[in-house]
Design a protein that fits this description.
The complex is a heterodimer of chains A (476) and B (220).
Chain A: E1 3-7, H1 11-17, E2 26-29, E3 37-40, H2 42-46, H3 55-61, E4 66-69, H4 72-85, E5 93-96, E6 100-104, H5 115-129, E7 134-138, H6 141-149, H7 162-166, H8 178-186, H9 192-197, H10 200-207, H11 209-219, E8 236-245, H12 252-269, E9 271-281, E10 288-298, H13 301-313, E11 321-333, H14 348-363, E12 368-373, E13 383-386, E14 404-415, E15 418-420, E16 426-436, E17 444-452, E18 458-463, E19 469-475
Helix pairs in contact in A: 4-12, 6-11, 10-11, 12-13, 13-14
Chain B: H1 2-9, H2 33-38, E1 48-54, H3 61-74, E2 79-82, E3 87-88, H4 90-95, E4 103-106, H5 111-124, E5 129-132, H6 139-152, E6 155-160, E7 171-178, E8 181-188, E9 197-199, H7 202-205
Parallel strand pairs in B: 1-6, 1-7, 2-4, 2-5, 5-6
Antiparallel strand pairs in B: 7-8, 8-9
Helix pairs in contact in B: 5-6
The chains are: A alpha+beta (476), B alpha/beta (220).
């Protein structure tokens, strides 16, 4: 086994602000009647604030300190979000709440080109998500977790070197009761190493089986089964924003982080997204929704960000946005391209689909269409417009048909019984009688002519049963 | 030195007055022998704008480019129509050999969006031909399109009734009907001046004399 532990220091603060800390010193405090600080920014820390201090004492130290309440649901959701994103690296990701994630990466090394490359990918990905973490690798899950929580960015591949690496870690990392920690400190045991050097029997008798078992699990002497995180079947994320955002364009930064999360999820499912809904949460009303429909599945965070950016920047907000949501409504299988043999040579077809998705995002979905010829004798029903290209044209040979059709037949006047528009029309060919459609109450009976105007332009005109002339097309 | 001179001379923006100008990219056969003889590269030029100045609409300007669009679509290449003035009539296009699955119609609602869409399509290289009806003679905007066409190696076609005084398009043709025929005047091309000539597009106009085209190949 090879476990990679990701520990997120100051996690409550990271969840709330990601990497964009506000200028003033900030801290997050637990709930309850006597709130205590659970996380604080570096500026607050240099002023002497540290976890465990009561919020009132912290405020006494730094007057301008902004204290935010801790939101455990949000933190749990954020950790699950990272675990979902991490599914691209391993199917065995385990949560170690509140702020640690364990990935079994022994099976993924070759796929990702070795330990260094894998760690680099994880770090880049986390940065794109907006998180910073301590990365520790060890042969046991608990060992890796303890190392990461102790702030050691270290890799231990050899089981023999695990114990020496764990020995200097403070016992406070083990979730022991305060009284047990105190009595251990009383007998001079403050690190894992000093605890391990104590007689086993006596240690078990005084501090219970749980302590020796924990130490054994960390060293790999006892099995340490972990429950793998099962990602949701459908990707849905919801982020509360630290402040109200009045301008949709400013949301792109946050949206990008969520899209990176989505793409990690999609990568593990070998899928791309085809329909994506971005929800903009407001304070006192229903969220507004923006849906992006894509003709091909897409799984590239940069491409998706460009699309969402295009759409967001053309959206005007009626109310400031308090939260951002992202739901992958529909996904479709997409071949893995992350490690393609031929570099990143993309096909022109992919470029075109992306281009069309961008056009649709800005111009509206109905602005992009494909033409379809349809076997019907009635000219206005012999074509359709579809939102996707149809392969295999059903060619109905159509001679004397204009390249342009008017959306509606245009009534034209007559002189001496002949059609007239700024001059007489000369009938070149015709009549071609089209009489059809009796079955659906849209029947027509028309005589079509190719007519030439005095300036040489040719039109497709017809005479209906009431002897009225209409223009229906332009030969161009 | 020689290589840099060649590179310089093959730059499509360099004007050469020595008659038989060479095109950097092979042209798209227009389907009209007389036109092909006149056009540098023996066909419609890729990687630049071709601008048609029209005297009225419905004189055969669309028919003039249809054989090229048909040829492109049979070769598996795509074309886009940006802001067409009417409904491009699917049965007529299909009969003239244009594979409809390789023709995208884009209808932006404003001129600004139409310019943006045309520029994106030209630049991406995903379309071999981008045909736009923009109705603007703002030469700065057209210059952006020309640069986009160069970047995407795309044949950009603009139909215009207005005459921009200083158009950046490298090929400009004026079309008018005279004596029942389409008169083509080459206002600007790479190479020397050429006398106006006439094309008989009347038969091609209504599809009465259609060339036989092979069946559309499978989509890639």
């Amino acid at each position: 086994m090879r476990w990679t532990a990701l520990h997120f220091p100051n996690f409550p603060l990271q969840v709330r602000f990601r990497k964009k800390l506000p200028p003033e010193p900030v801290a997050v405090a637990s709930g309850g009647p006597r709130p205590t600080i659970v996380a604080c920014c570096p500026r607050a820390a240099t002023a002497g604030i540290r976890p465990g201090l009561t919020a009132s004492a912290a405020r006494a130290l730094v007057h301008e300190l902004a204290v935010y309440p801790c939101n455990e649901t949000m933190e749990r959701a954020a950790l699950e979000g990272i675990a979902t994103w991490a599914q691209q690296f391993t199917s065995n990701a385990c949560l170690a709440p509140p702020a640690t994630l364990l990935l079994e990466t022994g099976g993924s090394l070759r796929l990702f080109g070795g330990p260094v490359e894998l760690a680099k990918r994880i770090r880049y990905g986390l940065a794109a998500l907006g998180f910073t973490a301590t990365l520790a690798v060890a042969p046991t899950a608990l060992g890796a977790e303890l190392l990461a929580r102790a702030g050691r960015n270290t890799t231990i591949e050899n089981p023999a070197t695990l114990q020496p690496a764990l020995e200097p870690l403070p016992l406070a990392l083990l979730d022991l009761e305060a009284s047990a920690l105190e009595s251990l400190a009383g007998i001079g045991a403050e690190t894992l190493g000093s605890c391990l050097r104590l007689p086993r029997d006596g240690l078990t008798r005084r501090f219970g089986q749980a302590l020796t078992d924990t130490l054994d699990r960390a060293l790999g002497r006892l099995p340490d089964p972990r429950l793998a995180f099962v990602p949701p079947r459908r990707f849905a994320a919801w982020h509360e924003l630290p402040m109200l955002v009045p301008d949709a364009g400013a949301l792109v930064f946050r949206a990008r982080q969520m899209l990176v999360e989505l793409c990690g999820y999609l990568a593990c499912h070998s899928e791309g997204v085809t329909r994506l809904t971005v929800s903009l949460g407001h304070e006192k009303r229903e969220p507004s929704r923006i849906t992006l429909k894509l003709t091909v599945p897409i799984r590239d965070a940069a491409d998706l960000t460009r699309l969402v950016h295009e759409r967001l920047s053309s959206t005007t907000l009626e109310q400031p946005v308090a939260a951002l949501g992202l739901v992958a409504e529909e996904t479709a299988p997409l071949a893995s391209t992350t490690h393609s043999l031929f570099g990143d040579g993309r096909h022109i077809a992919d470029d075109r689909e992306l281009l069309l998705a961008r056009l649709q995002a800005r111009l509206g979905e109905d602005a992009v269409s494909w033409l379809v010829a349809f076997p019907d004798h009635r000219p206005e029903r012999a074509y359709r417009e579809s939102d996707a290209p149809l392969t295999g044209d059903a060619i109905v040979p159509a001679r004397h048909r204009p390249l342009w059709l008017l959306p509606q037949p245009l009534a034209i006047g007559t002189r001496n019984g002949l059609p007239w528009m700024e001059g007489p029309f000369v009938l070149v060919t015709g009549p071609e009688t089209i009489e059809s459609g009796w079955w659906d109450d849209r029947d027509i009976a028309r005589d079509y002519f190719v007519a030439e105007a005095s300036d040489g332009a040719r039109f497709w005109i017809f005479l209906d049963q009431q002897k009225r002339w209409f223009m229906h097309g332009v030969f161009s | 030195m020689a290589t840099s001179l060649d590179a310089l001379l093959s730059n499509p923006r360099i004007w050469r007055g020595d008659g038989a100008a060479r095109a950097a990219l092979p042209g798209i056969p227009s389907g009209f022998a007389q036109l092909d003889r006149t056009l540098p590269g023996s066909g419609w030029p890729r990687g630049t704008l071709t601008e048609f100045l029209l005297q009225g609409r419905g004189i055969g300007e669309f028919t003039l480019i249809i054989p090229a669009l048909a040829r492109l679509s049979h070769g598996g290449e795509f074309s886009a129509l940006v802001a067409p003035p009417y409904i491009p009539y699917a049965p007529a296009l299909a009969t003239r050999g244009v594979s409809l699955a390789r023709l995208t119609v884009i209808r932006p609602k404003t001129l600004l969006n139409a310019l943006w869409a045309a520029e994106q399509c030209l630049r991406s290289g995903a379309y071999a031909a981008v045909v736009a009806w923009l109705g603007t003679n703002d030469d700065r905007r057209l210059r952006r399109l020309q640069l986009a066409a160069e970047e995407g190696k795309t044949w950009g076609v603009l139909f215009n009734t207005l005459s921009p005084p200083n158009s950046p398009a490298l090929l400009r043709l004026a079309l008018r009907v005279r004596g029942g025929q389409l008169e083509v005047e080459v206002l600007k091309r790479r190479g020397s001046w050429v006398a106006p000539f006439y094309l008989d597009v009347k038969d091609a106009l209504d599809g009465a004399a259609l060339p036989e085209l092979p069946a559309a190949g499978p989509l890639p």
